[in-house]
Design a protein that fits this description.
alpha/beta, 15 strands, 5-stranded mixed β-sheet, about 290 residues
Length: about 290
């Protein structure tokens, strides 16, 4: 089985169409189509449903994708194991991360890796949405969320508890709630994806529905509104750490419950044949996260 054809298959998945894959490879759509047909003939299955307007993986294509990724990673790892002894980390490291943590933590980490390893290239996608790392051709996703069972591998990098906070101006004007019951009388700034706020109470999880004059689609917007004094917000520690340290926001402690805890996770397809650049990034990110209170 030709690894070049397997790489072509992954490129088609990432690009979403034969023509887009052809453009990224500098080839003609006809050549891409022929090579894909040859791979399908060798495997004895159809990998894609193809029409004039759409392209999607078949069940067999879905099943083959992680194996294709593993084979390509094994190739890259073999090459890197030889090259890294001379030139350090190399190749392209493809990462996705949430916007706030991406800017404040991931970017400094990858900047340090690039400075230490001139042959390394990094392709970083910042998004608060959850990307399919297999179809997007990503090496690793940094996620801040409860992890559910899946085909992916996840390793916890650090704790990231929710934090209830408000600006000094808001607290001076409206006071601070003492219990979860008092949240209903305050302006709560809600992230669209969080219809309720999770609290730990009596050994269990209690979700409190909140409301206020402002809700927003991104953590950046919620944080900016909170700093501006628009109300109380619930964000994770790493989203507001610097603002609390600078005094722009104040942590609010309730008497009857604590905000729930989350973790920061590195998610990837397989531990087998993990490229050195991916392992080095995960180790460097964990070290940076743990080097804080």
């Amino acid at each position: 089985m030709d690894l070049a054809d397997i790489a072509l298959f992954r490129t088609i998945v990432s690009a979403g169409s034969l023509s887009a894959a052809a453009r990224s490879l500098g080839a003609t759509p006809m050549l891409v189509s022929r090579r894909l047909a040859a791979l399908e003939a060798e495997l004895g299955v159809r990998l894609f449903h193809r029409t004039t307007r759409s392209l999607s993986l078949t069940a067999e294509g879905e099943a083959f994708l992680p194996h294709a990724v593993a084979m390509l990673e094994a190739r890259d790892s073999a090459i890197e194991s030889v090259a890294s002894g001379v030139s350090g980390l190399s190749g392209v490291l493809r990462i996705t991360a949430p916007n706030v943590i991406g800017h404040s933590v991931v970017v400094p980490v990858v900047a340090g890796l690039i400075a230490d390893h001139p042959a390394l290239r990094v392709d970083l996608t910042l998004s608060d949405g959850v990307m399919d790392i297999a179809s997007a051709g990503l090496d690793v996703a940094i996620r801040v969320a409860p992890m559910k069972p899946s085909d992916l591998i996840a390793t916890r990098l650090a704790d990231n508890p929710y934090t209830l906070c408000a600006s000094p101006a808001y607290i001076a004007r409206s006071g601070a709630p003492a219990t979860t019951g008092e949240l209903s009388s305050h302006a709560c700034i809600r992230l669209h994806a969080m219809e309720s706020w999770p609290f730990k109470r009596n050994g269990g999880l209690d979700r409190i529905r909140v409301s206020g004059p402002l809700s927003a689609s991104t953590v950046d917007a919620v944080r900016a509104a909170c700093i501006a004094g628009a109300g109380i917000a619930m964000m994770t520690y790493w989203d507001v750490r610097e603002q609390i340290e600078r005094g722009e926001l104040k942590n609010i402690v309730l008497a009857d419950a604590e905000p729930a805890e989350l973790g920061i996770w590195a998610v990837f397809l397989t531990r087998a044949h993990m490229p050195l650049r991916v392992r080095a990034f995960i180790d460097a990110l964990r070290a940076r996260l743990l080097d804080r209170p």
